[in-house]
């Protein structure tokens, strides 16, 4: 059924708590990676991507904190997320948003593959016509 206002607020607070907790864990791991970099060790590709994502999340956190700190400004958060969808740190994304983003990427890749296949077929037809 429908959730009460108290349950909605509790769910939102839990979501924020989980997001900040995950961001804190990512920040600690990133700090260890930076320490390793400063001492001459080389990061793997996966570690480098995680470090870059965490740094980007920390930079995105600054405007996001304004919405959390200023009273009643969190009601404007959905409007700003519609205008700037990448403003939210990755640890605060819901599963449905992650799935939606993956579907968009997959559709774009499929369209690109379809375009490339059609281009290759057209080039093959032209080459066949030129040689035949």
Protein described:
By secondary structure, the protein is mainly alpha-helical. It has a domain at 94-131. 78% of the residues lie in helices and 0% in strands. It contains four helices and no strands. Helix 1 crosses helix 2 (45-69). The model has no long low-confidence stretch (mean pLDDT 88).
| Poorly predicted runs of 5 or more residues | none
N/C terminus separation: 69 Å
Q: Fraction of residues in helices?
A: over 70%
User: What is the overall pLDDT average?
Assistant: 88
Which structural class do the helices and strands define?
A: mainly alpha
- The ordered H/E elements are HHHH
Sheet with the most strands, sense and barrel status: none
DSSP strand tally: 0
**So what's the overall shape?**
flat
Strand content: under 5%
Radius of gyration, in Å, reads: 22 Å
Q: How many helix segments?
A: 4
């Amino acid at each position: 059924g429908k959730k009460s206002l108290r349950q909605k607020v509790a769910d939102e607070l839990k979501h924020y708590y989980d997001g900040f907790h995950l961001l804190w864990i990512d920040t600690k791991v990133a700090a260890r990676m930076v320490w390793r970099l400063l001492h001459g060790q080389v990061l793997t590709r996966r570690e480098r991507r995680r470090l870059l994502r965490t740094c980007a999340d920390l930079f995105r956190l600054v405007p996001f904190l304004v919405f959390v700190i200023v009273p009643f400004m969190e009601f404007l958060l959905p409007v700003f997320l519609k205008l700037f969808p990448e403003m939210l740190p990755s640890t605060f994304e819901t599963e449905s948003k992650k799935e939606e983003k993956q579907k968009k990427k997959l559709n774009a890749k499929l369209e690109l593959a379809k375009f490339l296949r059609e281009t290759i077929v057209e080039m093959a037809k032209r080459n066949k016509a030129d040689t035949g």
